[in-house]
Design a protein that fits this description.
Layout (H helix, E strand, L loop, with lengths): L2 E5 L4 H12 L3 E6 L2 H10 L3 E5 L5 H14 L5 E4 L14 H29 L2 E6 L15 H18 L4 E8 L2 E2 L14 E2 H12 L5 E4 L1 H11 L3 H12 L2
Parallel strand pairs: 1-2, 1-4, 2-3, 4-5, 5-6, 6-9, 7-8
Helix pairs in contact: 1-6, 3-4, 4-5
Length: 246
Amino acid sequence: MSHYFISGASSGIGKALAIALASKGHIVSIVARRIEHLKELQKEQENIHIFPADVSNRLEIKKIVKACLKNVGSIDCAILNAGKYLPLGGDELNSEEFNAHMSVNYMGVVHILASLIPEFKNLQKGHIVIMGSTAGYRGLPRSAAYGPTKAALSNLAEALYLDLTPMGIKVQIISPGFVETEATAINDFKMPQIISAEKAAAKIIKGLKSNQFEICFPKGFVYIMKFLKILPNSLYFKIIKWVTKK
């Protein structure tokens, strides 16, 4: 039995992960702002412990990580999943929204890591899992606020892998395609190969047991995105403009 710490667990992939892991007998500590959603999850699974907090608030996160370690015990695996998504294009620059995306998606991860990494270093073990996205591979239309945060997380995960793996700390990043969540429900375009949050959770749990740095799915969509990632800019822009009719 392991102790999983999951941020952004009030809905979507985080919620599906919490339910799946708790149902397997693991201890699961969940973090999110919406306390009513956390309480509902706790009623479903007795192995779930709730910690209401805003990941963008450094002091709140420091306090709840400390409380989690004290009251629930050492964390074996931290899945840093909390995220914000609003489709915004380059012609819709809104500094408040861009700042909010970075505060939640990127700094929300950093705030948790700042409290967890010292603990993992002392134990000479631990498992850090960061929720990235294939949207972070390259710039995409109407992803001007969201995409850069995921690109930053990819870079961060690679740096953490190099720095922490020698200390016995496992680091992985998740790069999903489209998943049915509250966030993607607002999209007004066709989302190829979209899968349910429950199916995504199953793929993630399987990936956590592997030694792969990147857990990515669905494979077909990911292969296309990885191919686009290595194309020269001129060709990439032509393809994306053609596909999106931009």
